[in-house]
Amino acid sequence: MKKVKKKHIIIGTIAFILILIGIFFIQFTSLGYKMTVPLRGYTQVKDNIYIDKDFNGDSSKVLSIIDEAHKRLVTFWGNTESKPTIIISNNEKELKKLGWTGNPALTTTAVFFGAHSYVVISPKGLNVDVTAHELTHAELHHRVYNGKILPKTLIPIWFDEGIATQNDYRENYSYDAWVKVTNNGKNITDFSKLKNQSQFYNPNIDVRRYNYIISKHEVGEWLKTHSIKDLIALIDAVNEGKSFDKLYYTK
């Protein structure tokens, strides 16, 4: 009887700890908050699209922006496979709970036996360029990480951003901007130094913008000599465990 009682106590303790961990994850992590947005009073305006109940903008305009952004993805990829959760808010307190740090928008991909992205868009990001940029991240992440059990970086950040900016037509990342910041290609950072987040997302806004510009140009040049089918084949191979560098730099 004592053994049975002790076993029940252990099981109960473990269950209690797991419940506490779950509560902490849901209430005090941005990913947990994103994952439970449907339970937090947001208005679902379409499948996987949620708008803060206090949002004072035009929801039909929001849907139009998302629709136009999605068209860019279809044009680029040929078809889309991802179904990210898109969250819109203009409440700074709410945005911070969702992981917002001041950027127009952000994409977080949860890799737990699959890949599902959460795209958070602030008022500054409610335009087709920013939305298409973030949705492209979601599509790429789905293709690269789908079927994975645990998170592991399989592609360098410069490539991730280089792909996302292909569908982002802002002048900030244009060819003319590339010519200017690189002295027409004479000054380009070694991409091996831009593989991870700390390397790419430099605190200096000018350096960070430079990293975006050269990444967009690099991927754009690669796509000039490779088809979208080649890109998808590369992504599929990375998903299967092959080295990104060996695949990308093979002519």
From TrEMBL:
The chain crosses the membrane at residues 9-28. Keywords: Membrane, Transmembrane, Transmembrane helix. This is Peptidase MA-like domain-containing protein.
